[in-house]
């Protein structure tokens, strides 16, 4: 048998050796009392650690941990999407150094959009104020109210048809919500409102608002938020198309 | 649903955090930060791989950032080794294990706990902490010897070794 290494001793103490090696180490330890004593002490440490901390497993989990939600507004962590978006749009990213007030303001947009989604998307009889059959009127009306020319993305290729839209309160003034629906009745909304303050950057970000996933960004004077009760990847695919159509 | 999968691991994350951070409030802060970050980064977890090991990785990163923020992380392990040879206060009994753990450098404490408490394999620890297996072994070895020394009150042994 080769020499008894320090790593062998640890692996033996931790039960991480295969059977052959374990038997070999055992045989050596019978003649090396110093090594045997160290191994015994390490095992005792392991047992003591478990005895000391295992009771934590049976403690009730604090409510604040059960209520933990994804960190918002830290897009650099969202590396995969960041990569895709970065390449696709060449956007400026929010950095870690962004100040909290900007976060608070930016976070208000997805929150409002998600609430509006949660209120109107389940609506059976009156999901919209003006239906897609009057799309021209809808767009003119909402554009006038928001003081900006609005465009309505076409998402037919993604399987979504326009249902219509409605006027809503925004952060500082009016907001607009366009609703889409796919063949299975799944709905997504594009929420548009005047941005609250003066962020220079256009950022494309994700927020999970309870069950509602929201991709949002600020473009010029307007903030956009695409909301849906679906997984991130599916919504991202649609959000990409929406962004491209609005920024040809 | 992703959060349900993560939530199932909270008790074990809390156990590890308690041992790592000591104080229970600080430990739960660590768990909370870990959960928030893990949920935000959930897409980075490879489905089918060990979620618990991935969560430990996230916790490790959060922990290191917290230490940096508090300037508790010794950037050079050599400095820690120098500290090791300093005589320790009173000898500790086994029941003072928690206090003894506080006397270990954070890097050694992490390895010691992932192996001894969480029973991860050395390869898993290497992945969780993004360090080579050789480094896992050396930190484990130093951590265990130091803990043994602290507990038996024989910390001065390192001094003798250094002289020899």
Task: Please explain how this structure is put together.
The complex is a heterodimer of chains A (248) and B (164). With 248 residues, chain A is α+β, with helices and mostly antiparallel strands. About 13% of the residues of chain A have low confidence. Chain A is elongated and about 95 Å long. Chain A has a seven-stranded antiparallel β-sheet with strand order 1-2-3-4-7-6-5, sandwiched between helices. In chain A, α1 packs across α3. The longest helix of chain A has 21 residues. Chain A has two domains: 53 residues, no CATH class; 175 residues, Phosphorylase Kinase, domain 1, CATH 3.30.200. Chain A is 42% helix and 19% strand. With 164 residues, chain B is an all-alpha fold. Chain B has ten helices and no strands. In chain B, α4 packs across α8 and α8 packs across α9. The longest helix of chain B has 20 residues. The interface between A and B is large, with 41 and 38 residues.
List the keywords.
heterodimer; A: 248 residues; alpha+beta; Phosphorylase Kinase, domain 1; 2 domains; elongated; B: mainly alpha; Rna Polymerase Sigma Factor, Chain: A; Arc Repressor Mutant, subunit A
Low-confidence stretches of chain B: 73-92, 154-164
Question: What is the makeup of the main sheet of chain A?
Answer: 7 strands, antiparallel
Amino-to-carboxy terminus distance of chain A = 71 Å
Order of helices and strands of chain B: HHHHHHHHHH
The level 1 CATH classification of the largest domain in chain A is Alpha Beta
The chain-level structural class of chain A is alpha+beta
Stretches with pLDDT under 50, minimum 5 residues of chain A: 73-105
- If interface size is counted as residues with C-beta under 8 Å from the partner's C-beta, which chains form the largest one? A-B, 41 and 38 residues
CATH superfamily of the largest domain in chain B: Winged helix-like DNA-binding domain superfamily/Winged helix DNA-binding domain
Q: Would you list the SSEs of chain A in sequence order as H and E?
A: HHHHHHEHEEEEEEH
How would you state the average pLDDT of chain B, rounded? Answer: 79
- What is the strand content of chain B? under 5%
The level 1 CATH classification of the largest domain in chain B is Mainly Alpha
What is the CATH architecture descriptor of the largest domain in chain B?
A: Orthogonal Bundle
Q: Under CATH, the topology of the largest domain in chain B is which?
A: Arc Repressor Mutant, subunit A
CATH architecture label of the largest domain in chain A: 2-Layer Sandwich
Based on secondary structure, the structural category of chain B is: mainly alpha
**Morphology call of chain A:** elongated
- Give the terminus-to-terminus CA distance of chain B: 59 Å
User: Biggest sheet of chain A: strands side by side, in what order?
Assistant: 1-2-3-4-7-6-5
């Amino acid at each position: 048998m080769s020499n008894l290494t320090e790593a062998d001793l640890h692996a033996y103490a931790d039960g991480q050796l295969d059977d052959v090696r374990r038997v070999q180490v055992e045989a050596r330890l019978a003649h090396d009392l110093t090594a045997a004593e160290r191994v015994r002490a390490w095992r005792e440490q392991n047992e003591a650690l478990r005895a000391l901390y295992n009771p934590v497993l049976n403690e009730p989990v604090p409510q604040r941990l059960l209520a933990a939600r994804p960190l918002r507004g830290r897009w650099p962590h969202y590396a995969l999407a960041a990569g895709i978006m970065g390449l696709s749009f060449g956007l400026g990213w929010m950095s870690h150094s962004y100040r909290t007030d900007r976060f608070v303001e930016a976070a208000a947009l997805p929150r409002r959009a998600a609430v509006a989604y949660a209120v109107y998307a389940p609506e059976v009889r009156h999901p919209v104020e003006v239906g897609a059959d009057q799309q021209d009127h809808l767009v003119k009306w909402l554009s006038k109210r928001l003081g900006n020319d609005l465009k309505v993305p076409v998402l037919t290729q993604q399987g979504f048809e326009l249902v219509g839209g409605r006027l809503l309160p925004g952060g500082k003034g009016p907001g607009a919500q366009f609703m889409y629906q796919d063949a299975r009745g799944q709905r997504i909304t594009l929420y548009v409102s005047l941005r609250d303050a003066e962020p220079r950057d256009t950022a494309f970000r994700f927020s999970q608002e309870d069950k509602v996933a929201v991709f949002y960004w600020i473009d010029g004077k307007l903030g956009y938020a695409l909301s849906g009760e679906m997984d991130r990847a599916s919504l991202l695919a649609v959000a990409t198309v929406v962004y491209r159509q609005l920024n040809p | 649903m992703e959060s349900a999968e993560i939530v199932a691991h909270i008790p074990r994350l809390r156990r590890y955090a308690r041992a790592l951070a000591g104080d229970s409030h600080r430990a739960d802060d660590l768990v909370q930060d870990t959960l928030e970050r893990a949920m935000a980064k959930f897409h980075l977890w490879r489905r089918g791989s060990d979620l618990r090991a991935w969560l430990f990785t996230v916790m490790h990163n959060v922990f290191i950032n917290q230490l940096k923020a508090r300037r508790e992380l010794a950037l050079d392990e050599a400095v820690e080794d120098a500290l090791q040879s300093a005589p320790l206060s009173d000898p500790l009994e086994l029941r003072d294990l928690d206090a003894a753990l506080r006397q270990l450098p954070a890097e050694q404490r992490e390895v010691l706990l992932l192996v001894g408490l969480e029973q991860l394999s050395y390869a898993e620890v290497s992945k969780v902490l993004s360090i080579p297996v050789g480094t896992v072994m050396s930190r484990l070895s130093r951590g265990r010897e130091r803990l043994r020394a602290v507990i038996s009150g024989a910390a001065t042994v390192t001094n003798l070794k250094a002289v020899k």
